[in-house]
Amino acid sequence: MARRACRGVEPTRIPIPEASALFGTLHAAGIDLTLLAHEVEHLRVDDVAQQAFKESGFAEIEAYFPPAQERAAFLTRRAQVALRYSLAIAALSTGLTLIGVVAALWHMAWWIGSTLLAMVAFSAVSVVSGFFQ
Question: Cα separation of 116 and 100, whole Å?
């Protein structure tokens, strides 16, 4: 007796390698953005850029860089923007990964995908409610 594959599941219809490559790229982009923001602060890239522009002969280059008194606030704002973008990329990546996995499981049987979705929702609600207690 020949073995039968699951109903409707064919290797050409499951784009798992492409999806994981896309989502892995999004995760790496968020991590790289966070590391870049950290390194920009500690390497004093602003000072290096300002010195390079001065040496190149740009007139009034100080007008384009914040004064020393405002630099801390400027660096804090830059870090907050970078973290917001990193969190947005992470949220997008997580959502798309969940959609891809649920779609692949739904393709096999609807109840498997819906069970995974329900468990993820239950876990998210449990974690969020734990933070607010």
Answer: 12
Whole-structure pTM value: 0.56
C-alpha triplet 115, 118, 121: angle, nearest 5°: 150
CA dihedral 66, 70, 73, 79 (to 10 degrees): 30
Nearest partner of 50 among 61, 38, 36, judged by Cα: 61
The length of the chain, given as a count of residues: 133
Distances (CA, A) of 18 to 12, 28, 65, 102, 113: 12, 15, 43, 15, 20
Q: Is the pLDDT of residue 90 over 70?
A: yes
| Interval 21-47: pLDDT, tens | 555 666 666 677 667 766 766 777 777
What are the residue boundaries of the structural domains of the chain, listed by start?
17-131
Alpha-carbon gap, residue 96 to 26, rounded angstroms = 10
